[in-house]
Amino acid sequence: MPRAWILWLRDHFEEAVCALLLLVMALVAFVNVGIRYGTNYSFAFVEEVEVSALVYLTVFGGAAAFRKGLHLGLHFVFVRLPLSLRRAVLLLSMSLIVFVFGTLAYYGIVQMRDEMALSTLSEALQVPQWAYTLAVPLGSLLIILRAFERTRVLWHEHE
What we know:
Keywords: Cell inner membrane, Cell membrane, Membrane, Transmembrane, Transmembrane helix, Transport. The chain is mainly alpha-helical.
C-alpha cells in the first residue's frame, strides 16, 4: 500500500469505516426492498445486519467527531478562561471521557465474555452475538484514543 494511502487512512480511518458501513446498509436495504416488491418475500436478516451496522456506525462516527473536535462544547467560554483554567478543564473533560468510555468498554467486554461462554447466537443469521457486541468496547477504546489526540492538540494550541 503506498505511503499516501496509509497516511490518508490514518487520518480518515473512521470516516472510511462509516462510509463502508453506510454503503453496505444502503445496498442491503435496497436489495431487500427490490425483492419484497418483486416477490412479496423479504429477507429476515436485513434488520439484524442494519441494526448491528448502525451500532458500529455510531461508535466510529463518535470517534471521528472526537478527533475533529465536533462534539458539543462550550468553546465560547473555554477560550475566555485563563490558561491554567483551560488546562484544568481539558484534564477534567479527558478524565470524564476516560471514565465514561472506559466503563462502557469494561462492561462491553464483560458482556462479550458472557456471550462467548453461553455461545449466544444472533436470531436471524446465527452469528456469534459477541461479534455485534464487539462494537461497544472497540468503539469506546477508539473514542478514548481520539479524545486523547484532540486533548493534546487543544493543550498545545492554548500555550
